[in-house]
Write a structure and sequence with these properties.
Rossmann fold; 314 residues; single chain
Length: 314
């Protein structure tokens, strides 16, 4: 009997040692954005694959739903690898807005509830662009990746962005039918702005029809097709110093593609701008805005992009 009592006492001590201590009040307030407790607002939970879809959903639904975008800042959501908590958050969501076009590579490796998943680019899937033999490279925390396969930066052709916004709207009306009137009104306003950007970029494209361009990254396929732009891409990062090898590679491209402008995804360093200028190439920024911008929002970034193109190519 003493032996059994001793064993139970030891077991109680071990279990007490393994039991996690209660977090302090400050720790409770700093919950992970993927934690279930963070989702308990009483509103339907909408999870999105990228920032453009977050912007569309928030702009269209207002405060009728909680929209959650879980990819870390500074990381390309197209190559993000969500952890277990983030995957669980997606699986528990009331609505999952995916970009389509093979954007979220991780989604092929997990099970998501099909009834809750909306492919926002399904309406134009027959027009997806296939990229072949793209070079494998790395930048940021996402590690090595390639842009081979389906081109996925769908929304920078603004007619496609408008169709994605419409898909978001229809999904939200099904989710919160009581908000249909405001959702419809907000959708019309958003699509009106996207259509206006589309018209402005179409005008830019008409001026550029005979002028080749280079791009710092192969993400402008749909924009090039929509607006008739003749773009060839390299694999440069705005903040990474361009070395002599990269510059020589660009000269090889320019031998048969006499571009005088490079389109950058982000603001290039002055050193990179100066190096390009030394070989007769000027720089213009068109930020795809796949993740949350440092300032402004999706629409303000896109308006800045279009204005920059208009100013460069008057």
């Amino acid at each position: 009997m003493k032996t059994r009592t001793l064993l139970f006492s030891c077991l109680a001590i071990v279990l007490a040692g393994c039991k996690p201590s209660a977090p302090a009040p400050a720790e409770k307030a700093a919950e992970s954005p993927a934690s279930p407790a963070a989702a308990k607002s009483g509103k339907p939970q909408v999870l999105v694959a990228n920032y453009p879809l977050q912007y569309f959903a928030q702009r269209i639904a207002g405060d009728a739903v909680d929209v959650r975008f879980l990819a870390p800042k500074g990381e390309d959501p197209a190559f993000w690898q969500p952890d277990e908590a983030a995957i669980t958050a997606f699986q528990n969501a009331d609505l999952i807005l995916m970009n389509g076009a093979n954007y979220s590579k991780w989604a092929d490796k997990v099970t998501l509830p099909e009834s809750k998943v909306v492919d926002t680019s399904a309406a134009f899937s027959s027009g997806f662009i296939e990229v072949r033999d793209a070079t494998t490279h790395s930048h940021g925390p996402g590690g090595e990746h390639s842009h081979s396969g389906t081109a996925f930066t769908t929304w920078i052709a603004f007619n496609q962005a408008s169709m994605q916004a419409q898909a978001v709207s229809e999904a939200l009306i099904k989710l919160v039918p009581s908000a249909q009137e405001s959702i419809t009104k907000n959708t019309q306003a958003l699509k009106g702005e996207l259509d206006a950007l589309d018209a402005r970029m179409t005008a830019v494209g008409r001026r550029l029809v005979q002028y080749p361009l280079v791009a710092s990254h192969p993400v402008y396929h749909y924009m090039a097709r929509r607006y008739g732009l003749n773009i060839k891409s390299v694999l440069w990062e705005p903040e990474t110093a361009v070395d002599d090898t990269a510059l020589n590679d660009l000269r090889g491209v320019l031998a048969n593609h006499r571009a005088r402008w490079m389109i950058w995804e982000g603001e290039p360093s002055k050193a990179n701008v100066d190096k390009l200028a030394s070989i007769g190439i000027q720089s213009v920024v068109f930020d795809p805005c796949g993740n949350v911008p440092a300032s402004g929002d999706f629409m303000s970034v896109m308006k800045t992009n279009v204005e920059a193109m208009e100013n460069a190519f008057r």
